[in-house]
Fold this protein.
Amino acid sequence: MLDIKVKSFNELTTNELYYLLQLRSEVFVVEQDCVYQDIDGKDEKSLHILGVKNGKIVAYTRIFKPGDYFECASIGRVVVAQNERKYKYGYDIMKASAEAIKTYFNETTIKISAQVYLLKFYNNLGFKEVGDTYLEDGIPHMAMIKG
């Protein structure tokens, strides 16, 4: 069972920031073999959704209000530790993220930039493909909307 925490950048403890950046690096840079600038200056304006299990961050997203990333609210940096994926925490963290967007931003329309191999996962959460595929940091992506 995940303990979900929603925090602004300034509310994150030093340890939480360290571990969420470590998790993002572990999956997006090392596992996916993608060299890109993860620390992009957008963490300060997002809310951070932490999925904590046994005191450790094992799932994470960051959410944005409309206009801070896309024209509508958005979810990004969706990540689950590799050894925790069998528990389907991706669904838990995404549902918590959508709920946080509704609670904190009073929005229900959400746009994401999804890695193409995860389209079915996002379809299962109610997202629909929009437009054509494109490369983002060398990985095929597609815009998706829920709302």
Notes: Helices lie at 14-31, 89-105, 119-124.
